[in-house]
Specification:
Helix content is about 45%, strand content about 15%. It has helices at about 35-45, 70-80, 90-105, 120-125, 155-160, 165-175, 180-185, 195-210, 215-225, 230-250, 250-260, and strands at about 10-15, 20-25, 55-60, 110-115, 115-120, 130-135, 140, 175-180, 190. Strands 1-2-3-4-6-9 form a 6-stranded mixed sheet, with helices on both faces. A 3-stranded mixed sheet has the order 5-7-8. A hairpin with a 2-residue loop joins strand 1 (about 10-15) and strand 2. InterPro entries: ClpP/crotonase-like_dom_sf, Enoyl-CoA_hydra/iso, Enoyl-CoA_hydra_C, Enoyl-CoA_Hydratase/Isomerase. This is Enoyl-CoA hydratase/isomerase family protein. Belongs to the enoyl-CoA hydratase/isomerase family. It comes from Marinobacter halodurans.
């Protein structure tokens, strides 16, 4: 089992194959400080090659997911002078961008459980989740322009998630939308009307994930990320080779055998599987 880093701003709880990562600054509505960015990056780095962790569940403590960036960190950066090619504002902003990239390309399935404020950087994290489940009371916004700044690191991921037309509307007007509108836009996949329903939806998602082969899931996620970034013929050529390797591989053999024997494959077995 991977040794997880000690964290002051995150609460970590591994339950079977799922790592529950909770943003844990409830007094600040889980605003994303530089310390939180660094700790989250360290967690994803630690589990990068851990096949025992199949998914990461992101959520926030105290009824909010994340209210955006930490104003105190921005104030501290303002007091520093840019020198020798270093710029405290740029470096602070880019550190979060690197985290978003890391979460986006993680081999694990990332599930975002979205409640309360989902703003700024929290909005960006939602956009790089593989599955987003939201309470109907959640509030989503890109408020940066109303504060005189720009959504520099999250904007490209918002465009990838919901398209340029809707990203323009939300970013340029600083609009706030509820869970149902977020679902209509394609930002989230499901909207639940109670905490119990949200928990049930999360449990169902993890149960579905466990039925899928871990290596095949990771390879599929990586393949999907390549679409639109390289020529289609070469992408399909490489995908065909990956398919052949998968069929001949351990998971392919086990999946085929399990299907023929009408039993769950080895990766889908849990403590209560007969």
């Amino acid at each position: 089992m991977t040794s997880l880093p000690d964290c002051d701003t995150l609460a970590l709880d591994q339950q079977g194959t799922a790592l529950h990562l909770t943003l844990n600054r409830p007094d600040a509505r889980n605003a994303m400080s530089l310390a939180m960015v660094r700790e989250m990056a360290a967690v994803f780095e630690a589990i990068a090659d851990d096949a025992a962790i199949r998914c990461v569940v992101l959520r926030g403590a105290g009824g909010h997911f994340c209210a955006g960036g930490d104003i105190r960190d921005m104030a501290a950066a303002r007091s520093q002078q840019a020198s020798g090619g270093a710029d405290p504002f740029r470096d602070l902003n880019r550190a979060f961008g690197r985290l978003i990239e890391t979460v986006n390309t993680a081999s694990q399935v990332v599930i975002a459980v979205l409640e309360g404020a989902v703003m700024g950087g929290g909005f960006g994290l939602a956009c790089v989740s593989d599955l987003a489940l939201a309470r109907d009371t959640a509030k989503f916004a890109m408020p940066e322009t109303s504060l005189g700044i720009i959504p520099a690191q999250i904007a490209p991921f918002v465009v990838e998630r919901i398209g340029l037309t809707q990203a323009r509307r939300l970013a340029l007007l600083g609009l706030k939308v509820n869970g149902h509108e977020a679902c209509r836009l394609g930002l989230v996949h499901s909207v639940l009307d109670s905490d119990d329903a949200l928990t049930s939806a999360l449990d169902d998602a993890i149960a579905s994930l466990i039925r899928c082969a871990p290596q095949a899931t990771a390879a599929t996620k990586a393949l999907l990320h390549r679409v639109g970034h390289e020529p289609m013929p070469s992408l399909l050529d490489d995908a065909a080779q990956q398919f052949a390797d998968a069929v001949r591989g351990e998971e392919g053999a086990e999946g085929t055998m399990a299907f023929m024997q009408k039993r769950p494959p080895a990766w889908a077995k849990t403590d209560d599987t007969p």
